[in-house]
Structure formats: C-alpha cells, structure tokens
Amino acid sequence: MDPQVILEQFLGYLDQGIALAKSWLLSPAAWSQFGLLIASYLLARLVNRIVAPKLTNLLTPPAESTNIFAKARRFVLQFLPLILPLLAYAFTAMGEAVVTAMFGAGPVIGFGKRVFLFLAIRAFVKDILTDPFLHLLGKFVLIPVGALYALGILDPVIVLLGEARVSIGNIGFSALALIRGVVAGSLLFWLGQWSNGQSSAFLDRQEMRPAIRQLTVKTAEFVIFGIAFLLLMNIMGIDLGTLAVLGGAIGVGLGFGLQKIASNFISGVILLIEGQATVGDYVELDGGEAGTIIKMTARATILETYDGRWIVVPNEDFITTRVVNYSDSGSANRLEVPFSVSYDTDINRVPDLIEAAVAAHPNVLTAPERPDCELRGFGDSGIDFAVEFWVEGIDDGVNKYTSDVLFVVWNTLKENGIEIPYPHRVVEIKGQMPA
User: Fold this and answer.
1) pLDDT digits over 317-334, tens only?
2) What is the per-residue pLDDT across 395-423, written as a single tens digit (0 to 9) for each?
3) Where are the alpha helices (DSSP H) in 205-242?
4) Which residue among 146, 160, 275, 308 is least enclosed by CB atoms within 10 Å?
5) Beta-ladder partners of 383
6) What domains, with CATH codes, occur in the chain?
7) CA 78 – CA 129 distance, rounded (Å)
8) Alpha-carbon torsion (357, 363, 365, 366), positive or negative
9) HEC-encoded secondary structure of 350-382
C-alpha cells in the first residue's frame, strides 16, 4: 500500500479521535459514564479486598504437600492478581448495559471496559507468564494487541495489515499472515518443546531398558514436532500438497549429498534398539577414542573422557568398527597388579598373604572369582608375581582400584618382612684403576 494513503488514513483516525474526545468532554451522558467507571473501579477494589485474602488462605496448600491437588491449588493461586481488573471489567460491563438501555450507546464506559481488560492482560503478562519465552511473547505481542483493542483501533489495524503485502521472491504474503505465522509458529514449537520435556520426564520414570527409553523419547520428539509443523502449515494456509516437491528434493539429497547423515541416523536407531552401547557406558573404539557415553543424538554419540574432553563419534562407527564396552550395564571388570619380591623370600607364603589382603579391600569382588595371586617368572632382580582381582567399574576417574591394591601389596609385604627388590648392577673395570 502507498505510504501516502497510510498517512492519510492515520490522520483521518486522529481527527475522529479528537472529535470523539470533544464530544465526551461536553456531553452530560459522558460524565455520567465516567462516574459509573469510577464507581465500578471502587466497587471492584472493595470486593477484591474482601475476597482475595480468603481465596489466598483457601488455595494455599501446606508447604510439604506435593500431591496433584496441591499442585492444582498452587497453579490457581498464581491467577489472583487478575481478580481486581476482571472485577472492574465485569462491573463496568454491567454499567455499560444500563447506559446502553438509557441512552442507546455508551462509548465512554465501553472504552473504560476495554481499558480494564487491557490492565488484566498486562497483569497476566507481568505476574503470571514466568516462562522467559512466553513472557517475551506476551510483552511484544499480547500487550500491544490489548492496547490496540483498548483504543478501539484493532480492527482497522488488522485490515491494514491484511492489505499490506510482503514479497519473498515470487511468493507473496500479507503482513497479517506473516505475523500470524510467526506468532503461531513460536507458540506451537514452544508447546512442542514443553510437551517433549513432559513426555521425556514421564518415560524416564518407566521401567524399561535405557536404549529403548532413548528411542521412545526420540520417537515422541519427532512426532510432536512433526504435528506442530503440520499445524503451522495449516494455520499459514500453505497447501501441504506443495510439500511434495520439497520431499522429492530431500529424497534426492539423501541419495547423493546426505548419505552419511542418513547412515548415521539409521545407525543411531539400531544402537538404541539393540542396546549394545547406551548412556553411561564406558567404551573404547578401534580408532582409540575412549570415554563415557553422555549423550546419543540422531547423528552422533558424545563421549566424555576422564580429563573432561568431549569426543563426538558418528553413530556409524559403532556399527562398522569394533567397540569394547567396559560397562555394558554395570558388568564387573578384571584388573591386574604386578609386583616383585626378593630372591631371598619364601615364595610359598606370598600368594596366601596377598590374596587375603586384597580380598579385604571393600571394592574388590568375590564373584565371579576371588583375588588370585600368580607366579609369573624369575626376573633379573627379583621374582615376579601378579595379583588378579575383580571390581565393579573402570579403573580411572573417581575409581583408583589399581592404586589402592598397590598400597595393599606394599603394606602387606612390609608387615611380613618380605623385601621388594630394586635393580642391582655390577660394574667391571678393566685395566688399572685411575689414580
């Protein structure tokens, strides 16, 4: 639309507003409507002063109560700031009905009624919408719409936006359709995110394998956001049949440029179904990558090493290469600690002493096997032994199993007078000793 035409329309509305204000100020009927507005507001304040404390006491549950009724009461309790403006709106509406019956019209009191509704909207955004996104949407969308409605110019503005055209290439939209799509899309995808969080929390409480739980959560997420997308297309008036071309383009892309993405996505689904590796497992890949799985996405699996680094591994690597899973739902692992004793030692005493001492460690398991001390060989400086033991977990990070057992071996040998050898070297000097 021509900007000059828009300016002329705005000036016309401004002249109408000035003329309306003059008629209100000079009309006895307008003054009586102002009196009804003030009376409605004072009556609303009086009723609110009586009703609000009683409702607060009625709706406030005990602090320790967490049942569904307590949650419902707390939810309703947050709407109490709306009582005053809504009471004023209701009493003003009654006064408007009386004025309309007496004078045939009540523009002043009708304006006041819309103002009270605007105050209710403002209180709703300020005091009730605590979610950051919803608060932002209410501040920049809901409050301006309420203000336009209070001024009585919402319908003309809607018509004006419907006539204004926005072109993107060969595609044209009205400004109203574009705004409606942005607002509706924001709400739908926020609702989808909230629903996804609720469904994830619900599934986390169910008794199922972690891999199946992850797959169910991802499936629910795709379904929720797919429905949100289809609803948005319907709201914006876009024919879903036109998406067939886009679907064909995506299919061609998957066939050529997106092969790896498709492969990783399918590999991720297989991983979740089979459950061979899941969140919390400590794994090591053929390429040397090792760490605890902290997240499994549609494209990749994220490992966290014990030094705090994150490794992003494509899901395909878990299918096409060899993977060592040290955790596998909490299975035990066997560790080994080598040590040596002097050649002067009665080696027949060593196995019983070491096995008993290591078995007393609180983290050493008795199943599938008890600690086993074995003679491994006769070294250059001493007789070589090794003690094998089973523990629950990986010997790294917060777990120091090998270090603890080495301390146990050292203390046991010292307490029993068994010497731990150190290397001896014989140096032979040929010829005369230097002076």
Assistant:
1) 888 888 888 775 456 788
2) 776 678 899 999 999 999 999 999 988 87
3) 210-235
4) 308
5) 341, 378
6) 3-163 (no CATH), 259-325 (2.30.30.60), 332-415 (3.30.70.100)
7) 10
8) positive
9) HHHHHHHHHHCCCCECCCCCCCEEEEEEECCCC
